[in-house]
Amino acid sequence: MSTYRALKGYSVKSITSDPANPKEGQVWYNSSARTIKVQPLVGAWAGGGNLNVTRGSLSGTGTLTAGLVVGGTTATVAFEDATEEYNGSAWANSNNLNTGRKISATMGPQTAGFHVGGIKAPANTASANVEDYDGTSWTNGTALNLGRYALGGAGTNAATVVYGGNNIGGTGTTANVEEWNGSAWSEVNNLPGAILGQKGCGTQTAALSIGGNSSNVTTSHYDGTNWSEGGNLTTGRGNGGAAGTLTAAILASGSNGGLQAATEIYDGTSWRNTGSVATARGELAGSKEGSATSMTIAGGESPARTNATEEFSESVLTRTVDVS
């Protein structure tokens, strides 16, 4: 019969009380309680405050306690301009976009948002519009070289990279990549392939392109110059919600012909599953500036439009092993 020492290369440590700062995966024997204990990593979603405007096809950024959602589409408005801010428990209305649109990309913190691309009126017009948010109002910025929707993006309003998407009536689905240096957009090295519906997070010099349309499982890394292949998703999908960094990212929900509740966490090399969302949805807003252990998702198509917000947290929790 195999022993823990034979499998893992070391014995289970016997101590009289639980360690003060146990690590994920740590196993020990509490001699006082006469129990074996393990420290698993547990991820779970909890309900948050509802959006004021029920909508899908919106985009988001910020963090769990300082979130920002903008744009989208409602039952009566095709190209929504509403903006809302989240404080960790409730959403508050803020000033509207100058140009309402949907399926855009938003980057940056709540007080310095950067809203890029999308679809705007008249219907089926790929937008090149760019707007800056200062925590109160939106200001028109320098337009993209290529108008597009369902694009990925990462960075801040001073150093941004946007990639992929679809240019309706023009080039169609694209591999085009553009960088913003605070004053101008420039075209840089393309993605490995044309794609739309992928999610982005990270920084201009350390960005991720995650998943995409047609059940795409690919992850691509950007180092500020070139793209390289990363680990594949367990569940391929597009139009989910992403947050974090190149080496610690999260992807929640999305769609691949059907709505997916799956949540996966990335360590820079491979993806692993964690707790699923309560309400599976696509074309949602995620708090992009959050982390792999703390983020929100809001709104989206489920399949009807929803105003629901969910908050994610992941932590290590002590569990007693039943050896009876």
Textual characterization of the structure:
This protein has 1 helix and 32 strands. The model has no long low-confidence stretch (mean pLDDT 92). By secondary structure, the protein is an all-beta fold. A hairpin with a 4-residue loop joins strand 23 and strand 24. The chain is globular, with a radius of gyration of 21 Å. Strands 1-2-3-32 form a 4-stranded mixed beta sheet, with no helix packed on it. It has a 4-stranded antiparallel beta sheet with strand order 4-31-30-29, with no helix packed on it. A 4-stranded antiparallel beta sheet has the order 5-6-7-8, with no helix packed on it. Helix content is 2%, strand content 38%. The longest helix is centred in the first third of the chain and has 5 residues, at 4-8. It has 2 domains: 4-39, no CATH class; 43-314, Kelch-type beta propeller (Neuraminidase, 6 Propeller), CATH 2.120.10.80. It has one helix at 4-8; strands spanning 13-15, 27-30, 35-38, 41-47, 59-62, 67-70, 83-86, 91-94, 105-107, 114-116, 119-120, 125-126, 130-133, 138-140, 152-155, 160-163, 166-167, 172-173, 177-180, 185-188, 199-203, 206-210, 219-222, 227-229, 241-245, 248-252, 263-266, 271-274, 285-286, 294-298, 309-316, 319-321.
